[in-house]
Amino acid sequence: MSDDQEQVAADIAAVEQANTAFYEAMERGDLDALSGLWLPGENLTISCVHPGWPVLSGRGEVLRSYALIMANTEYIQFFLTDVGVSMTGDTALVTCTENILSGGPAEDGGELGPLVGQLVVATNVFRRTEDGWKLWSHHGSPVLTESEDEDEDESPS
User: Fold this and answer.
1) Which string of DSSP letters, residue by residue, matches 109-151?
2) Which InterPro entries match (predicted)?
């Protein structure tokens, strides 16, 4: 393997590690760790699109959104599939499917709210910094699945 190929392989591994750290911070509800994974915002404005939300721009808006999500989500776990990394220079693009299992705040009896599964396709853009790879943008879109009832309604005439 050439030096260039070794460097690309090392960069891809570092980006994959940064991507994993992002989801692990969400699972732990660790806003401080999550904040440290985003670009500081001095030169480039970060952005985020949560499924069904408008575009959020700037560290304040983006990090407030995660604080809100964490405050209202008692349990969340991400199982990432179809992870792909593309790179050019100091920018990396990660695409993946987020297989999410989550539960809302505890109900009256103190029990965890009902668990809900969801599929989201995500694009995470990272930039290389002196402190490693940092998130520049996250965009998540829900995967719409057809129910059996919809299949029956669409039978050929």
Assistant:
1) TSPPPPEEEEEEEEEEEEEEETTEEEEEEEEEEEPP---HHHH
2) NTF2-like_dom_sf, SnoaL-like
- Asked if 45 and 61 count as a contact pair (C-beta separation under 8 A), the reply is no
Q: Are 95 and 123 in contact (CB under 8 A)?
A: yes
Angle ∠(96,102,105) on CA atoms, nearest 5: 145
Longest dimension (CA), the chain: 62
33-51 burial code (b ≥16 CB/10 A, e <16): ebeebbbebeeeebbbbbb
**Over the chain, what is the mean pLDDT?**
89
DSSP 88: E
Per-residue pLDDT, averaged over 4-31, amounts to 95
Residue whose tokens read 């490693």 = 132
Kindly report the pTM of this predicted structure: 0.85
Residues in the chain, total? 157
Mean pLDDT on 57-62: 95
Domains of the chain: 3-143 (3.10.450.50)
Q: How many angstroms separate the CA atoms of 24 and 46, rounded? A: 20
Closest Cα partner for 35 from 78, 56, 76, 65?
65
Helix, strand, or coil (residue 82): strand
